[in-house]
Design a protein that fits this description.
The complex is a heterodimer of chains A (438) and B (411). Chain A is of the alpha+beta class. Chain A folds into two domains: 176 residues, no CATH class; 246 residues, no CATH class. Helices cover 52% and strands 13% of the residues of chain A. Chain A contains 17 helices and twelve strands. In chain A, α1 crosses α14. Chain A is elongated and about 100 Å long. With 411 residues, chain B is α+β, with helices and mostly antiparallel strands. Chain B has two domains: 170 residues, no CATH class; 194 residues, no CATH class. Chain B contains eleven helices and 13 strands. In chain B, β8 and β9 form a beta hairpin. Chain B is elongated and about 100 Å long. Chain B starts with a helix and ends in an 11-residue tail after the last helix. Classes of the chains: A alpha+beta (438), B alpha+beta (411). Chains A and B meet through α2, β4, α9 and α12 of A and α2, β12, α8 and α10 of B.
Chain lengths: 438, 411
């Protein structure tokens, strides 16, 4: 029966090619617009570390006070001062924790003919690797002992390893960073979480992959300044690097791994107690004001999804709705034109159910054709997003299997949904009426 | 003008179709108004002038390798600037901490009263030397340029208040609304000592092009300071016609001067045309996207009207024949369908206008957008009514061609 109705549907669609083309195009364009923008939205609102996003937290401590917080609606600064970051690190209250900041180190190739290379690098604690589930091709992160010793060790990316050592296991070998030798402890496998959740404060959130990690303690000892943002509410009281470290300037990221909800609650209490302690010590002249956010809450708070992505998704959804309203109207016109045909079928014994089945299947055929066109246009659209969005974001939007399936599902479902009212009207046709007027 | 009553009576028998067309017009209006508004806002932003003479400018971002001492890096940077100024094809060059549309820089509050608690305005700070105005091609409209002996070289951590400052006219007017800024003191950040305004430039944009800078987009201060440190950024004015050559020659010359540096990445060497394109990429893209969506949307709505009206005409052939037989002229039939469409259209645009405003109000809360100007709603209303009339014209003319003899035929 299904095959027969499907055939009937196709025949009917061929009968009014213009009307059919209009419907197919409306659905095709509507679906393509929403799918294209959805692909971008999906990429930007992606959970970069799904297996752990609810266990990794960013603590925030208000070291600037209510006067500055007033401009941020009571929010503590999005980064930490050295004093607070080291304070939290010393207390070591989480299962794992790390301070991090982007560093501008350059690699000097052993071959004197080559120019120095500079790539995205971070200074972290050894805990960061198991915390962020960094995959390793060779070796691994460094140890706590090496953190404490300010050791000259480095973790490099696969791309770097390919470039410098032609893909060989380079663990234990040395590289020259800014004129100093560092021993490689590990080579990362391909790893490029998008958005780069652990540093959305300093990066564009969708940057090129991280190529190097060096110990935080080493970077501080070498007075390596941040390659990212530095915000001060007032000028540091003392000059030089020491003065900067003692200042209330915020420039460091802090991450804590808290496996259970109880841990998170306890950590929040600890942050409160820490701030209260700072208040008692006379450093803070205000009541404790702290936050603790997990990965997704943090990304949301930092507004990682670009507003263009949200606005265009919204407009595209509205666009789809209009296309569907249009389809409802056209289907209504199409079905009602065949009132006499329906009358004959009903008079010959077809039940209302049969009419429903026939017309919904016909609509689904339109949906299928619309889906095909939509898929084609989505392909064009995904190709064209680089015209609209930052190329770093645009390259994340891809036409994969799930998007193809979704395109078809949305096209067919939407058309069948749109067909309900016209079909109901068709099923209401009184056979006697139609036969009489003939 | 045909009587409205019979049209209303006929519409009552086509409730579904009428509602669908009205709804489609309403939704289209709501989206088109807002999309046009977004387009206009973006286009305004991306056509904002920087105040510089943007042709023949090249920007280079450099990072020193293996130099940890800021002062030592400063010496190297100074050598770069002098070498750049000596290059053939270079008219002038300057070391900067930032430049308009660079996409990163410094900003702070400004006061005119030493004890003032709240800053009067927000401004960006450009640290440059006496070659700044000539290199950027910025127009000095009052006062004077810096003198070479006023320029101080310093570590970013140890910046002292500069006794002299050149401000943009926008900032000068904001701080001293009576236009007397020249020679007056300004206090930057939490400074307790003033900087004196020695010059006013006509216009100078901040380093950012994004929406959040809209309320201080042209508030700039230039200070006679050269920052030392691991990073250095150069702005170079090429002699006319030499820009393309310089894009290759300048980094090559710098590398020859000193190899231990990195000038790569997407911000390494850029002509100002590239800087501008990168700064406004998403604005331009969104405007194009909205434009395309508007066009397709209008086309689809028109197609929908054509489709449904054609159906109605087909359904009413017999009635039209009867009317024609009873003395109605072709013109009467034509104006019947036009009026019918106009009535549905009016209902649609009324609902649509409300939806457009509602959608905008919601977006204002969600995306920090500006309020929709009523001019857009009015323009959208007129456009959609005209579109409706145009779409209905073809089916209506076909209806007018129905001969009176149709009345005598069955079906």
């Amino acid at each position: 029966m299904f095959a027969y109705y499907f055939q009937l549907g196709l025949r009917s669609l061929r009968k009014n090619p213009v009307l059919t083309a209009l419907m197919v195009m409306a659905i095709g364009f509507g679906v393509a617009a929403s799918m294209t923008t959805y692909s971008v939205f999906r990429a930007t609102s992606n959970n970069p570390i799904p297996q752990k996003s609810s266990q990794l937290f960013v603590p925030q401590i208000d070291n600037w006070g209510p006067e500055d917080a007033a401009t941020t609606m009571g929010e503590p600064p999005p980064a930490m001062s050295y004093t607070d970051a080291i304070g939290l690190m010393r207390d070591h209250k989480a299962k794992r924790q790390t301070i991090l900041y982007p560093v501008g180190v350059s690699l000097i190739p052993a071959d004197a003919n080559l120019l120095p290379i500079s790539e995205r690098s971070y200074a972290v604690y050894g805990d960061a690797f198991p915390m962020f589930d960094v995959p390793f091709l060779y070796g691994g992160g460094w140890t706590t002992a090496e953190d404490d010793a300010h050791a000259a060790v480095v973790v490099i990316s696969k791309a770097f390893n390919d470039k410098l050592f032609h893909g060989a296991n380079s663990v234990g070998r040395e590289v020259n960073l800014d004129g100093r030798n560092y021993r490689i402890t590990g080579v990362m496998d391909d790893w490029n979480p998008q958005p780069l959740f652990f540093d959305v404060v300093n990066s564009s959130a969708f940057p090129d992959p991280v190529q190097l990690f060096i110990p935080f303690t080493r970077a501080i000892e070498l007075k390596v300044a941040t390659n990212g943002n530095n915000n001060c509410n007032k000028s540091p009281a003392n000059d030089g690097w020491e003065g900067y470290l003692q200042s209330e300037c915020v420039w460091l990221g802090y991450w804590a791994e808290l496996p259970t909800e109880t841990d998170a609650k306890a950590y929040l209490q600890y942050l409160h107690a820490y701030s209260a302690e700072q208040q008692r010590a006379g450093r803070f002249h205000w009541a404790p004001n702290e936050r603790l956010r997990n990965v997704m809450d943090w990304l949301d708070n930092r507004k990682v999804v670009p507003p263009e992505s949200k606005i265009s998704l919204l407009v595209a959804m509205g666009f789809l709705v209009i296309c569907l309203v249009n389809t409802v109207g056209l289907l209504l016109a199409k079905f009602m034109r065949r009132a006499s045909e329906i009358g004959v079928r009903r008079a010959l014994g077809a039940s209302r159910k049969d009419i429903y089945a026939q017309f919904l299947i016909e609509a689904a055929a339109v949906g299928l054709a619309g889906g095909l066109l939509g898929l084609l246009l989505t392909g064009v659209g995904v190709f064209g997003v680089s015209l609209v969005f930052d190329p770093r974001i645009a390259r994340l939007a891809t036409l994969d299997v799930s998007l193809v399936l979704l395109t078809f599902a949305v096209a067919i479902l939407a058309t069948v949904l749109a067909a309900f009212y016209p079909t109901w009207r068709a099923a209401q046709v009184q056979p006697a009426w139609q036969l009489k007027s003939n | 003008m045909p009587h409205i009553k019979p049209i209303l009576a006929a519409l009552k028998r086509h409730k579904a179709g009428t509602i669908l067309i009205a709804l489609q017009i309403a939704l289209t209006l709501a989206i088109v108004c807002n999309a046009l508004f977004i387009i206009q806002q973006r286009v305004t932003r991306l056509s904002r002038p920087t105040g510089m003479d943007e042709s023949n400018l090249v920007a280079i971002q450099n990072r020193w390798v293996g130099v940890t001492d800021a002062a030592a890096a400063g010496v190297l940077t100074r050598a770069d600037v002098l070498a750049l100024r000596q290059m053939p094809g270079v008219q002038d060059a300057v070391q900067v901490n930032a430049f308009p549309l660079r996409g990163g820089g410094w900003s702070t509050g400004v006061r005119v009263d030493v004890d003032g608690k709240k800053p009067i305005a927000h401004t960006t700070q450009y640290f440059m030397d006496e070659h700044a105005l000539a290199t950027m091609g910025v127009k000095l409209i009052a006062g004077r340029n810096f003198r070479a002996d006023e320029v101080v070289t310093t570590d970013p951590d140890k910046i002292q208040t500069s006794p002299q400052a050149i401000v943009s006219k926008a900032l000068a007017d904001k701080l001293y609304p009576d236009g007397s800024a020249l020679g007056k003191p300004i206090y930057l950040g939490d400074d307790r000592t003033p900087s004196t305004v020695i010059g006013v430039v006509e216009r100078l944009q901040v380093p950012w092009g994004a929406a959040w800078t809209d309320d201080f987009a042209e508030n700039s201060v230039i200070l006679p300071v050269q920052l030392t440190g691991n990073f250095s950024t150069y702005l170079i004015r090429a002699k006319p016609g030499q820009q393309a050559e310089l894009v290759k020659a300048a980094p090559a010359m710098l590398t020859k001067l000193n190899r231990l540096r990195v000038i790569t990445g997407d911000r390494g060497v850029r002509t100002f045309e590239v800087v501008r394109e990168q700064a406004y990429k998403s604005d331009r893209g969104l405007a194009i996207l909205m434009g395309v969506i508007c066009l397709i949307l209008l086309a689809i709505t028109a197609a929908g009207i054509v489709g449904l009206t054609s159906f109605w005409v087909g359904q009413r052939r017999k009635q039209i024949g009867v009317r024609r037989a009873l003395g109605a002229t072709k013109h009467d039939i034509l104006s019947y369908f036009l009026t019918e469409n106009l009535m549905i259209g009016i209902a649609g645009v009324v609902i649509g206008a409300l939806m457009a405003v509602g959608l905008n109000l919601w977006m204002v809360t969600q995306f920090e957008m500006a309020r929709l100007s009523m001019a857009y709603v009015a323009a959208g209303v007129i456009a959609l009514l005209l579109l409706g009339q145009a779409a209905v014209l073809a089916p209506a003319m076909r209806a007018a061609k129905v001969p009176p003899v149709e009345a005598t035929r069955s079906v």
